[in-house]
Amino acid sequence: MRSETARIAVDDALLVGDLAMPEHPVGVVAFAHGSGSSRHSPRNRAVAQVLQRADLATLLFDLLTEAEERVDAITAEHRFDIPLLGRRLVGAVDWLAGHPATTGLPVGLFGASTGAAAALTAAAERPDRVGAVVSRGGRPDLAGGVLNRVSAPVLLVVGGDDHEVLRLNEQAAAMLAAPHEVHVVPGATHLFEEPGTLEQAAEAARDWFARMARRPSRGARR
């Protein structure tokens, strides 16, 4: 496994991330973390390791700059700014398309909590680059009006005991025009802290992205 620091320039920020490359990658998955989290999220890193063992490259990066994170820790004003987070994730998708190690690879997006809405927003903006989306304990409902513009297959992974978020995911699923599935992990609450539940979520994500890697590419360039 080869790793490098990613520096992703977007219109208003320079974002930092970690790109992990298996020897023979079949695709690449960019992670959008949730409210108040970062690329160091132990849950997202655990999921990333499962994907890497399936020969999927992973990009974990911070959607906010250090200064924005300091403000957000006090005001929470950025973590629910889905248009901002979506634009940042679009920047990461474009960066992957131009990076020598990942150009031409199918791109998947993995979003947790509010990051799921950012992932769906980016998928709607880059339909020819994003091949699959997975949400874990996500808030796809926050993507609002873009849901019917998403064309990539969407997997919504929700804890069976996360009742309100499950209801919101089912409502969002009804608004998706793309192929989609709601995958309920029995006994899991919002953070998938119960024994074995995060592993089940990671394996479901792995299988969803593996299907993406097997489908014919829709073109890596826009």
Structural overview:
The chain is of the alpha/beta class and 222 residues long. Helix content is 37%, strand content 25%. The protein is built from 6 helices and 8 strands, in the order E-E-E-H-E-H-H-E-H-E-E-H-E-H. It has helices at residues 42-53, 66-75, 82-98, 114-125, 163-175, 197-214, and strands at 2-10, 13-21, 27-32, 56-61, 107-112, 130-136, 154-159, 180-185. Helix 1 links the parallel strand 3 and strand 4 (56-61). The chain starts with a strand and ends in an 8-residue tail after the last helix.
Helix/strand order? EEEHEHHEHEEHEH
Helix/strand-derived class? Answer: alpha/beta
Instruction: Tell me how many strands there are.
Output: 8
| Principal-axes shape call | globular
- Beta content comes to 15-25%
Unreliable spans = none
Q: For the report, how would you describe the main beta sheet?
A: 8 strands, mixed
Q: What Rg, in angstroms, do the CA atoms define?
A: 16 Å
Overall mean pLDDT score?
Answer: 92
Number of helices: 6
Order of the strands making up the biggest sheet? 1-2-4-3-5-6-7-8
Helix content: 25-40%
CA distance, first residue to last residue? 29 Å
